[in-house]
Write a structure and sequence with these properties.
The chain has 191 residues and is mainly alpha-helical. It contains eight helices and two strands; from the N terminus they run H-E-E-H-H-H-H-H-H-H. The radius of gyration is 15 Å and the shape is globular.
Length: 191
């Protein structure tokens, strides 16, 4: 778990702590988009744009699962219902519980998970634009700030792919639906 060079959880792990499974999948989708492997499809869907190459940054298991699950265009809700994505989310949940960052019995981050998220936010305020940001910085901002970062940093893709607006959000006000015991909850709570 996490980036061994920075000793920081990966952006999709941070997103899971902030907003649950939906937020983690959103970060995985954005990771694929920044790699050029996913683009917006018709009417709030996403589709693969090319094969997922091995060059560059390592590809997390959830990101690989999302790419594989886009064998056919899908919206975020459909994507989260696909088996490979559900399995990757369940594994991610287990890893976060084992690391002491996520509660195993009730949905939500532990005190350690909330502290980590707060510490990361303190060190990485919400950027006003994407200018000068690396892909890793964009993913971290989206992991930490959800919809606000999506609309500030990748507004066109986020809207066309149904990640924000009427079609979707990572900021649903449904804390009780943040995630079930199996990690398959579809909404993600608030920051």
């Amino acid at each position: 778990m996490g980036d061994t060079e920075t000793n920081r959880p990966e952006p999709h792990e941070i997103a899971f702590l902030r907003g649950g499974p939906r937020a983690a999948v959103t970060v995985a989708v954005l990771d694929l988009h920044l790699r050029g492997a996913v683009e917006a499809g018709r009417a709030g869907t996403m589709r693969t744009a090319r094969a997922l190459g091995a060059a560059g940054r390592p590809v997390p298991a959830l990101t690989k699962a999302v790419h594989s699950a886009l064998y056919r265009p899908a919206g975020l809700r459909q994507l989260m219902d696909r088996r490979g994505v559900r399995e990757a989310l369940n594994e991610l949940r287990r890893e976060l519980v084992a690391a002491g960052l996520l509660r195993g019995f009730l949905p939500g981050p532990t005190v350690s998970g909330r502290r980590l998220r707060g510490h990361l936010r303190d060190g990485a305020p919400l950027p006003a634009s994407r200018t000068g940001l690396s892909d890793d910085e964009v993913l971290l901002a989206i992991a930490l700030y959800g919809d606000r970062a999506l609309t500030a940093l990748v507004p066109r893709f986020a809207g066309e792919a149904g990640l924000v607006g009427r079609s979707g959000t990572t900021e649903l006000e449904l804390r009780q639906s943040w995630g079930g015991g199996d990690g398959s909850g579809l909404s993600c709570g608030t920051t």
